[in-house]
């Protein structure tokens, strides 16, 4: 039986770090002229090694700083959260294996609800700007007034979509954040790279950042980039399954997809009165008569709505809508979010993050997600 932890790309410790990368990370971490701490943005085309370099940089920064902030802007291949989230996470421990991602509770996150920014670039950018503003208020403008908040560098990992609208989005992010360092990873296929030099500047005007250009880590005998080809959908499914595995004690024997599916099927859900929450559909419109049908057997963002129109709803985590009882007017939700946090939730956000198909197709397991007794809303 396949295991949702078995994946060669995730488990392999065979990570090659060229000297060029080590030198680049050193430049960011030990730039004595940088005060306050560095704000480093990592960019480059798909599969060029941005995430691996970001992990390397975080580790190196932790040798100098007590903790490092990490702004993850890749909703399709997230680092510390399940897919569909934009997050700011603080890290205080070195990662021993650069090949293995791990889930962490973010300091703040928003549920974007999609694996790409294509459907709503405006909201995508607004969330990223809000997360950076939170970092800036907490760690840069506090001037160390809060214990432990002085001297916290920031690493920003970006997506591999660097052409067309993706390029425009990246430029907007760099202009807004004004990082102290931009690390640009290049591959041998020149037409897929970002433009040469400080591509985000308009006619040479703007805040000056230290630009560091490096090549992808692996090259063949002809100096051609050897890119790590990843099954993006599989990696997203693994992240979702690892997230909902947190519903159970760590010492509980769950190592295969079948075991996880059975455990979730038997797991008692939370009962949430529909009258206590609002429901919002992202990236699409759903007729009122179809709201419950659209929610059933989906993954939703569990959020706390903001009465302030200038703020966005904070996401507490994800949940699976297991069933809806329209007679009792309640939702049944499975989630690893602690009860204390769940009690704050007053908004469900539905996007396009899907339950992994493999969880729904386990033979001999009656799926809890395919309810037949959901009635249309009155």
Provide tags for this entry:
about 375 residues, six-stranded mixed beta sheet, seven-stranded mixed beta sheet, globular, disordered C terminus, single chain, alpha/beta, 13 strands
Order of helices and strands: HHEHEEEHEHEEHHEEHEEEHEH
The number of E-state strands comes to 13
What's the gyration radius in Å?
A: 22 Å
Percentage of residues assigned to helices: 25-40%
Distance linking N and C termini? 44 Å
Adjacency order of strands in the biggest sheet: 4-3-2-5-1-6-7
| Main sheet attributes: strand count, strand direction, barrel closure | 7 strands, mixed
**Which whole number gives the mean pLDDT?**
85
Q: Give the low-confidence spans.
A: 5-13, 370-378
Strand content: 15-25%
Please, how many helices? 10
**Global shape:** globular
Structural class: alpha/beta
Could you explain how this protein is built, in words?
The chain is α/β, with parallel strands linked by helices and 378 residues long. The protein contains 10 helices and 13 strands. A hairpin with a 4-residue loop joins strand 11 (314-325) and strand 12. Helix 2 packs across helix 3. It starts with 7 loop residues before the first helix and ends in an 18-residue tail after the last helix.
Give a brief description.
With 378 residues, this protein is of the alpha/beta class.
Indicate the topology:
Layout: H1 8-11, H2 19-29, E1 39-43, H3 50-61, E2 68-72, E3 85-91, E4 108-111, H4 121-140, E5 154-157, H5 165-177, E6 181-186, E7 210-215, H6 232-245, H7 257-266, E8 270-273, E9 278-281, H8 291-295, E10 299-304, E11 314-325, E12 330-334, H9 339-342, E13 347-350, H10 357-360
């Amino acid at each position: 039986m396949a295991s949702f932890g078995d994946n060669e790309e995730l488990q392999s410790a065979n990570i090659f770090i060229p000297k060029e990368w080590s030198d680049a990370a050193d430049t960011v971490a030990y730039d004595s002229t940088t005060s306050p701490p560095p704000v480093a943005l990592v960019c480059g085309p798909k599969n060029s090694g941005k995430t691996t370099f970001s992990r390397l940089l975080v580790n190196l920064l932790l040798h100098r700083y007590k903790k490092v902030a990490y702004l993850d802007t890749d909703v399709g291949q997230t680092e510390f959260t399940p897919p569909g989230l934009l997050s700011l996470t603080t890290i205080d421990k070195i990662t021993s294996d650069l090949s293995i991602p791990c889930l962490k509770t973010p300091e703040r996150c928003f549920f974007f609800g999609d694996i790409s920014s294509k459907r709503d670039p405006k909201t995508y950018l607004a969330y990223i700007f809000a997360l950076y503003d939170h970092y800036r208020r907490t760690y840069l403008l506090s001037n160390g007034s809060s214990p432990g908040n002085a001297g916290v560098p920031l690493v920003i990992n970006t997506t591999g979509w660097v052409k067309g609208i993706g390029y425009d989005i990246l430029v907007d992010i760099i202009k807004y954040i004004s990082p102290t360092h931009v690390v640009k990873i290049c591959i041998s296929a020149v037409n897929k790279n970002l433009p040469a030099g400080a591509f985000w500047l308009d006619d040479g005007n703007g805040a000056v950042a230290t630009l560091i250009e490096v090549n992808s880590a692996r090259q063949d005998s002809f100096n051609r980039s050897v890119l790590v080809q990843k099954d993006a959908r599989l990696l997203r499914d693994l992240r979702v399954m690892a997230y909902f595995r947190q519903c159970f004690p760590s010492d509980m024997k769950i190592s295969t997809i079948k075991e996880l599916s059975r455990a979730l099927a038997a797991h008692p859900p939370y009962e949430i009165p529909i009258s206590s929450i609002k429901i919002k559909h992202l990236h699409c419109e759903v007729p009122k008569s179809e709201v419950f049908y659209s929610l059933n057997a989906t993954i939703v963002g569990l959020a706390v709505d903001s009465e302030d129109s200038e703020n966005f709803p904070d996401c507490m985590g994800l949940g699976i809508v297991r069933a809806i009882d329209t007679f009792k007017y309640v939702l049944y939700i499975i989630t690893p979010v602690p009860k204390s946090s769940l009690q704050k939730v007053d908004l469900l956000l539905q996007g396009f993050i899907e339950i992994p198909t493999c969880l729904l197709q386990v033979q001999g397991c009656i799926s809890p997600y395919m309810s037949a007794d959901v009635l249309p809303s009155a």
